[in-house]
From TrEMBL:
Lineage: superkingdom: Eukaryota
Family of the protein in this entry: Belongs to the LDH/MDH superfamily. MDH type 2 family.
Organism: Fukomys damarensis (Damaraland mole rat)
Protein name (record): Putative malate dehydrogenase 1B
Biological processes annotated in GO: malate metabolic process; tricarboxylic acid cycle
InterPro entries: Lactate/malate_DH_C, Lactate_DH/Glyco_Ohase_4_C, Malate_DH_type2, NAD(P)-bd_dom_sf
């Protein structure tokens, strides 16, 4: 008995068949039910296989010996009813109303059964997760977060593959043994990989932690010349080896936006599933605000990070709200108040807040593993299960012209996660960005894009030998540990149209590779060989006084 899940005639035939099976010793029934969207395809296959002609639901046939043998077509519901009446003297008196009710119940039961089957299948086939530069502190801190069940779900098993340079193989083996010692019920297997051609095979989630390069470089162009080939290699491997639905998340301390854009260019078929993590900066800002307001960082929501995640970015407090704040006004857990209404010292917001952020960021460079793990884990959790309703999340995605941002650059902006994907919150009110401010945020990204295209053209036209690239067909570029520069930081207040804009230091690693003049207005592209100057990049976006 084969039919559609929502077919009322299938429901009536099923009830009659159940009655015959219960009352006849040698009468057996086997039911096959399909979703309405799949019904026509299944019916066509059955008819072609048995050389039958049938168009409606249900279709009923007899198999005289064992199930699976030669079948004799009875027909549809009417033919089955006639067969039962002639052979067994039994008929059905089910009303049309009852047929419709049972058909709807059958459809709901079929959907529920399909969902359970899918979840069981996920347990049988573990989620394939890959981590690049897995031997770094960020990778070591991330692993316990992933296997805890908080990210992908407490019923989702995973197979974890640690990918890094061949020189780190000993560290990877030690890390793999330590992971096995966790005895996590969700960790099905752990493997290591040091050969580029084997990377990302059947990957469903790829976490890119690659952040630094082996040799110290002195110009933006030199840095990009070493990064473009590695991003191209990763892009090609994602295209060739990963699953079509792979989700790629990029984290780092330098050039996160640019690396994300390069990966999108070199892996076009999965470009829509490549994102950059911005929650680390968001968390730092919440921590500073929480100290000032004497509350927990988790009680502060909707801080927005705009721009270049590891460069010129802006902290937007216009939508920020604080929950569970002890004051004269108290409300239920869902009650909140605007952060800027609770901080009465505007000078603190404009100056000390930015200065404190600089200090916190500098500290994070030494203890960045924990912050990186939490930021990546939370972003993945939202991606798989959705972000909290009504909460704004910052994420580095490819701009399509939203908020007046130039198209084609990866830019941190407000989004929400829902149903396994993300959407930019273009309907937010009071989030306008001034022209000068937008120029300041996009100038370094656009300049890096120009240099990137120059480097890419050089790589494609002239080629770079294996030693210059740092990888070959069976070797990826070593993920060296960049020196922590000690550039002196300064703080200034931007003047001009944006009077309420506070500016502080750019992330040191990225600043030392760029000689961009950070004054408002158009910028000149950096010239190779020129001296590199520390440049301001932290800024604050808030309503005018």
């Amino acid at each position: 008995l084969l039919g559609k899940a929502d077919c009322p005639y299938y429901a009536k035939a099923e009830l009659l068949a159940d009655y015959l099976q219960k009352n006849l010793p040698d009468f057996q029934i086997f039911k096959i039910i399909h979703h309405p969207d799949l019904w026509e395809e299944w019916l066509k296959d059955v008819c072609e296989k048995n050389k039958w002609s049938h168009k409606n639901s249900p279709i009923i046939w007899r198999e005289l010996l064992d199930r699976g043998g030669k079948g004799l077509l009875l027909g549809g519901y009417n033919e089955f009813l006639e067969h039962a009446q002639l052979y067994y003297g039994v008929t059905s008196s089910m009303t049309t109303e009852m047929m419709m009710i049972i058909a709807q119940e059958n459809l709901e039961a079929h959907k529920e059964k399909a969902l359970k089957k899918e979840s069981t299948k996920d347990l049988v086939s573990p989620l394939q997760v890959w981590i690049t530069s897995a031997s770094t502190p960020a990778g070591c801190s991330l692993i316990p977060v992933l296997v805890s069940g908080e990210v992908f779900g407490r019923r989702t098993e995973m197979s974890l593959t640690l990918f890094d340079h061949p020189s780190t193989e000993g560290d990877l083996r030690s890390l793999a043994m330590e992971m096995e010692d966790l005895a996590s019920p969700l960790l099905r297997s752990v493997a290591i990989c040091t050969r580029a051609e084997e990377a990302f095979r059947q990957a469903q989630v790829v976490i890119l932690l690659d952040d630094s390069i082996e040799q110290e470089v002195h110009s933006l162009e030199d840095c990009l010349r070493q990064r473009v080939p590695l991003c191209r290699l990763y892009g090609q491997l994602l295209e060739q080896n990963a699953q079509d639905t792979v989700r790629v998340i990029v984290w780092g301390k330098t050039f996160v936006n640019l690396r994300t854009e390069l990966l999108k260019r070199f892996a076009p078929s999965v470009a829509h599933n490549i994102i950059a993590v911005a929650l680390g900066i968001e968390g730092e800002a919440k921590a500073v605000l929480a100290r000032k307001l004497k509350t927990a960082p988790s009680c502060i929501k909707n801080v927005i990070i705009w721009g270049n995640i590891t460069g010129n970015h802006y902290v937007d407090l216009r939508k920020a709200r604080v929950y569970k704040q002890e004051s004269a006004i108290w409300g239920p857990p869902q009650y909140s108040r605007p952060v800027l209404n609770l901080i009465f010292d505007s000078e603190w917001v404009k100056k000390e807040f930015v200065t404190t952020l600089k200090t916190l960021t500098a500290t994070g460079k030494h203890f960045g593993g924990i912050l990186a793990a939490h930021s990546i884990g939370t972003t993945l959790k939202y991606w798989f299960h959705g972000s909290p309703p009504g909460e704004i999340v910052s994420l580095g995605v490819l701009s399509e012209g939203q908020f007046g941002i130039p198209e084609g650059i990866v830019f941190s902006m407000p989004v929400k996660f829902e149903n396994g994907t993300w959407a930019v919150l273009t309907d937010l009110k009071d989030t306008e960005i001034g022209k000068d401010m937008m120029t300041r945020m996009t100038s370094d990204l656009i300049q890096k894009g120009l240099v990137k295209r120059t480097c890419q053209k050089t790589v494609e036209n002239k080629g770079i030998d294996g030693e210059q690239r740092g990888f070959s067909e069976d070797k990826v570029q070593a993920e060296g540990r960049a020196k922590e520069p000690g550039d002196k930081e300064e703080t200034e207040v931007a003047k001009g149209d944006e009077k309420n804009l506070s500016v502080s230091e750019d992330h040191q690693e990225e600043c030392r590779l760029s000689n961009v003049d950070r004054t408002l207005g158009p910028q000149s592209p950096p010239q190779r060989g020129e001296a590199q100057n520390p440049t301001p990049g932290y800024s604050l976006l808030q309503p005018s006084d």
